[in-house]
């Protein structure tokens, strides 16, 4: 029967030669943190070392580039005055959406076998709904298509949307002449009628705070003016006339009515007669009748 001293000595030797047991250990009891905007965020980081009693502690934030939060026993400029560290746990005061992201706690114990240990903590800052931007035209013609837009870009998690007409919530069904996308915030009407006129507003909401609504805007539905109707009818008639003319020309060409006569009439070209040659003088019959003396 083995005594305690008999098995304790081999266990101690094993522990002394175990690399894992001689390494710095870093962990977090809460790797995902969600807090409301303008409150404090506590990013927990616990560590243990074997030999090094004064390890180096660093906090970094991941993004397009890794930036320092806590380095060389002090906070960087963007966190100075609004953060504190206790042990290795980081607390950021009055967080905003810009503070959301992944943070890495690094502990370096140079005297341990494996000197570096790290853990990642994700911070998600929740933002209540903001007043959404609503796009509602002031007027639209009867029979035309229409799309109303609503967007809240600041809410976290992303907001869902609801449209109201004359302070009555609109609910899209198979029988309604419009469709609503609650995630994108769009209200679409394929063909506007006179009954669609009214006051329209949009409301954004999420699980963080109270819903917010934009100011209601008036939508007028008007008929096409008489001169516009005449212009459209005239343009349609002109296009129809051109279309019929094109058809007639195509039919005529297929039947050979519009082919050019390839027989060309022969015509003599008029060339004026050449002028008569100058008279040739006969020097044999030439007689000198006068003489000149100089």
Describe it:
The protein has a 6-stranded mixed β-sheet, with no helix packed on it. Strands 13, 15, 16, 19, 20 and 21 form a 6-stranded mixed β-sheet that branches. The protein has a 4-stranded antiparallel β-sheet with strand order 12-14-18-17, with no helix packed on it. The protein starts with a helix and ends in a 39-residue tail after the last helix. The protein is elongated and about 130 Å long. With 294 residues, it is α+β, with helices and mostly antiparallel strands. The protein has helices at residues 4-16, 226-255; strands at 25-27, 32-36, 41-43, 46-48, 56-62, 67-71, 74-75, 83-86, 89-92, 101-108, 116-126, 133-135, 139-141, 146-151, 160-165, 168-169, 178-181, 186-189, 198-205, 212-213, 217-222.
DSSP helix count? Answer: 2
Strand content: 25-35%
Decide which structural class fits the backbone: alpha+beta
**Helix-residue proportion:** 10-25%
**Strand line-up in the sheet with most strands:** 2-11-10-5-6-7
Unreliable residue runs: 11-17, 262-267, 290-294
Mean pLDDT: 83
General shape: elongated
Distance between the termini: 176 Å
In total, how many beta strands? Answer: 21
Helix and strand string, N-terminal first?
HEEEEEEEEEEEEEEEEEEEEEH
Would you kindly provide a brief summary of this structure?
Helix content is 15%, strand content 34%.
